[in-house]
Structure formats: structure tokens, C-alpha cells
Specification:
Glutaredoxin; 4-stranded mixed β-sheet; 6-stranded mixed β-sheet; 3 domains; alpha/beta; single chain; 17 helices
Length: about 500
């Protein structure tokens, strides 16, 4: 199985160097290729992280030309399909500033020959695609101890080293390329093991939890021997994609610690007692805690990138404390290349946080007034309703609201459809609940559910998680949304139109 992708080169001052144009000309001979999909793998680059990472380019007479303005070596990926035989391909290029590559592939019968020529071709020969394979770690998904998976990763890394040396001997790549091959081999076990370990609590369940200390010991040893702040590694794509996930795994471990050792947790992470610390923690278990992790374990450009990745994730999901965190970030990195991309987003968050509740946002905070699903059905009888079961704590719920609430309201603005939002497990989050309603522009009826109401609705509609969408007809009958999660808006719209017309 191929590994997602390799590495980029030296970091240092290259980020601030003057950009040079690099070009890849790709020719597809005796093939039916309509377009290529391009991936710029320089994920820590501000323009890539916040603006343009993927795009498509159409072929003209079997050829496509892609130009890049680069300040450092960057991995670029081309995905393409030969429609004549319905076969997909992927080729990775290491493109350095000033490179000019000609990539040619030719289908002759069932065989595809590939040639790469031009400036920089020594770093881009076909064998480079084979250098980094990854073991099939699914074989160890039920393991309660880490020994076998560590052995598998180590064995694969040894094989990768052999392939890398074969490539070096045959193609004589640049010295910088050779240095980074060695660096990639050094860090390969770090991200492979920690990524696998993060999934074991789901795969092996209780067997993993009983032996969690053994897994953590191995992780700690790998990180101690291979510092995650080594700036040379920041532009290895596998490593850069791994870093934000590492912060999330740390966050999840701290969630566990807050239950198991609350006194030390609040002392170490919030510098206060349990009562005061719990208020801070419960108000934002995501963004604020991730910032604390970044500042404790990372510095310089690694911390700057992880702040950027944190902001990127908040754009889709939770915006708690974004303004405060941005203020910290701007003071710490006043010349960051991320700032021009972040400032419009921050201004938009600031404006939305200032929005008040309107008369079209009706709140029912008295949990005794709507105790059961029947109480809710009586409340809306005679109307077609979209019932959204969500929570302020629920990242998927909030992402779906951001993506779909506005378009749905616009589509049904002149039709008899009522929107009802039931906030679940939010009894301690009343203030946040009231702020998010105008933040997302959620006109409609809002119910702060007690646990009994949540259970009654979910049991009767056979909902299995959040968000859950329920379509209620004017006669009081109901059914789960056919689109379920993630929402297919067109499917839900059709179902809602049927409910409206059933009156």
C-alpha cells in the first residue's frame, strides 16, 4: 500500500526567499485523459492552507502545463484517469524553484511507460513513487499491546531505506533530497505509530484501555528521540498533516485526565483549583485547550503552523474563543504570513458575535414546558417542520448548520415550513446556546431539552447520534430525514416539499 506522501526540503529562510517560477508539462500519449487534478502538498504555506490546495486543469491536445511560484522545494501531485480503460493514476513530483519538468506517459497496450526529463528530473524519476510504502496496520487493529505494530512499522521503514538507497544510487538526486530522505526515515515511525495508537481506543476498546500506559510509554520514547519541534521536518507533508492530529490526540488524553485526576489536571493546565478550572474547561474544551497544548509543547514556526491549523478548523466548526486566541497569535507572530488570510475571518466572527436575538428566534428555556416528543408535536401541529437535534458541543452539528441552514432558509422562505432546533445535553451551556442562535442566524423555535426529552425523541425516531434530522408533517406524523448525516441538501429538500404538500 502506498504511503500518502513524502517530504519537502529545508525550511529555514527559504520561506522568505524570492519566488521563482517552476513548471511541469505533462503529455498523455495514446490515452483518453480529459483533465488532471492537482494537489499542492505544501500544507503549511498560508496560501495553500487557507486558499488553494486542490484544483483541476483541462488538457489541450493531450497536454497540460502547470506553473508554480515557489520559494522552496514542494511536492506536487497529479491525479488523472485514462477513461478508455477506466484506470486511475497518481504521480508525485518534487518541484524545486526554477525546475522545468517534462512528464510523459504512454499507454501501449496494457502497459504505461513514464519518462521524466528536464531540470530537476533527478529528483522525479518513477522509482521515487515506490520509496515510501506503509504496512497494512489493519492487521493489528485488535492488539491490546504495541509490540507487533511497532515491529511492522520498523520492518517497513527498513524496506523503505533500502528503496531510498537504490534510488540514490541509480538517479543521483540532489544532496538536499538525500538529506530529507534520511530525515523522513527517522520520523516515519513517529507519525505511523502515534496515528495508529490514536485509533486503537476505538478498534481494540477496553483491551487497549487496560494497557494504555504501555502504548503511551512507546509514544513518549519516540517523541523524546525525535523532537516534534525540529524545523527541518515541518515541510514533510506526512509530518505536517500529522501534527494537528497529534494536538487533537493530546487534547483527548487531557479530557480523560480531567476525569481521572481532576486536581492535578486543573492545577497543571489552568493554574487554578478544580472549581474555577472546571468553569474554564467546560466553557471551551476544544479551542482554548488546543491553544494551551500548542504553547506548552511547541514553539517558533511549528507553533505558528499549529495556530494556523487551529484557526482553519474553527472556520468549519467551533468558533469559541477565536477572538482571544487570535489576539494571542498576533502578538506572538506579528509578521505571520497567515495574518492576511485570518483577518477577514476574524472580523466576520466579531460581527456575528455582536448579533442579538431577534423576534424570529423563539426560545423555550423552561424544560418543564416541553417534556416529551408528544409535547413538541402538539406545539407544532398543523405545520410542516424540520426538527434539528443538535448541541452546542457537537462539532458535526455546527458544521452542518453553517453549511446548510442559510441555503435551506432561503429555499423555503416563501413556503410553509417551520424550523425547530432542540439543543441536547446543553443544560450547563445556556449562555453559549443563546449566543449561537443569532451567531448562526437560526430563526425558528428553540428548545433547551432536558435528558428525558432527548431520550424520548431519539428513541421514537430511532436516531443514533447528533445531528439527527426529523421531518414532521402537518398531521403530526414524522420520519427521519432520508439524507441523514452528512446532509444531502437536495434529498432533504425533496422530503420537506412532500411534507408541505401533504397538508
Amino acid at each position: 500500500m502506498k504511503h500518502p506522501f513524502l517530504l519537502i526540503f529545508l525550511l529555514g529562510q527559504l520561506f522568505h526567499a524570492r519566488a521563482q517560477e517552476s513548471v511541469i508539462v505533462a503529455r498523455f500519449q495514446n490515452m483518453n485523459v480529459k483533465q488532471i487534478d492537482v494537489l499542492n502538498n505544501d500544507y503549511s504555506n498560508p496560501g495553500v492552507l487557507f486558499k488553494r490546495r486542490y484544483w483541476s486543469a483541462s488538457l489541450r491536445e493531450g497536454e497540460v502545463v502547470q506553473r508554480f511560484s515557489l520559494v522552496k522545494p514542494t511536492f506536487i501531485i497529479f491525479d488523472y484517469e485514462d477513461a478508455a480503460v477506466k484506470k486511475s493514476f497518481r504521480y508525485q513530483f518534487l518541484l524545486s524553484p526554477g525546475d522545468s519538468l517534462l512528464f510523459t506517459t504512454n499507454r501501449q497496450g496494457a502497459d504505461y511507460s513514464i519518462a521524466v526529463t528536464g531540470r530537476g528530473s533527478e529528483n522525479n524519476q518513477p522509482l521515487i513513487q515506490e520509496i515510501y510504502n506503509m504496512p497494512d496496520l489493519k492487521l493489528y487493529a485488535r492488539d491490546s499491546l504495541p509490540e507487533r505494530v511497532l515491529q511492522a512499522i520498523s520492518k517497513q521503514n527498513d524496506n523503505n531505506k533500502i528503496l531510498a538507497q537504490t534510488y540514490i544510487n541509480k538517479n543521483k538526486p540532489t544532496p538536499a533530497f538525500v538529506d530529507l530522505l534520511q530525515l523522513h526515515n527517522r520520523y516515519f515511525p513517529v507519525w505511523e505509530f502515534i496515528s495508529f495508537k490514536g485509533e486503537q481506543k476505538f478498534s481494540a476498546g477496553e483491551a487497549f484501555r487496560r494497557n494504555q500506559a504501555a502504548w503511551q510509554t512507546e509514544e513518549d520514547a519516540l517523541v523524546a528521540a525525535n523532537p516534534l519541534n525540529d524545523l527541518r521536518v515541518l515541510n514533510i507533508p506526512d509530518f505536517v498533516y500529522f501534527l494537528p492530529m497529534y494536538v487533537i490526540r493530546k487534547k483527548e488524553l487531557l479530557w480523560e485526565e480531567s476525569n481521572q485526576n481532576p486536581t492535578s489536571f486543573y492545577k497543571n493546565w489552568y493554574n487554578t483549583n478544580q472549581k474555577e478550572g472546571e468553569k474554564l474547561f467546560q466553557s471551551d474544551m476544544e479551542n482554548d485547550l488546543r491553544e494551551r497544548i500548542i504553547n506548552k509543547y511547541f514553539h517558533e514556526q511549528t507553533a505558528e503552523f499549529l495556530y494556523g491549523a487551529l484557526f482553519k478548523s474553527t472556520m468549519d466548526e467551533k468558533q469559541e474563543n477565536v477572538l482571544k486566541i487570535f489576539d494571542h497569535f498576533q502578538k506572538q507572530f506579528p509578521n505571520s504570513g497567515y495574518l492576511p488570510y485570518l483577518k477577514p475571518y476574524i472580523e466576520a466572527v466579531k460581527a456575528k458575535e455582536a448579533l442579538p436575538l431577534t423576534t424570529e428566534m423563539v426560545l423555550i428555556e423552561n424544560q418543564d414546558s416541553v417534556k416529551t416528543f408528544d409535547d413538541l408535536l402538539r406545539l407544532v401541529k398543523g405545520k410542516a417542520v424540520l426538527l434539528d437535534m443538535w448541541g452546542t458541543w457537537c462539532s458535526p452539528c455546527r458544521k452542518e448548520i453553517q453549511e446548510n441552514s442559510g441555503p435551506l432558509k432561503e429555499y423555503f422562505k416563501d413556503k410553509e415550513l417551520r424550523f425547530v432546533y432542540v439543543a441536547n445535553y446543553d443544560q450547563l451551556n445556556t449562555e453559549k446556546w443563546e449566543k449561537l442562535i443569532p451567531y448562526y442566524g437560526l430563526t425558528g423555535l428553540h428548545i433547551l431539552a432536558n435528558p428525558h426529552l432527548t431520550k424520548d425523541i431519539m428513541d421514537r425516531v430511532k436516531g443514533t447520534g447528533f445531528p439527527t434530522y426529523v421531518v414532521i408533517k402537518p398531521d403530526g406524523s414524522y420520519e427521519l430525514a432520508r439524507s441523514k448525516y452528512p446532509m444531502k441538501r437536495s434529498v432533504l429538500i425533496k422530503q420537506l416539499e412532500e411534507a408541505i404538500s401533504s397538508k
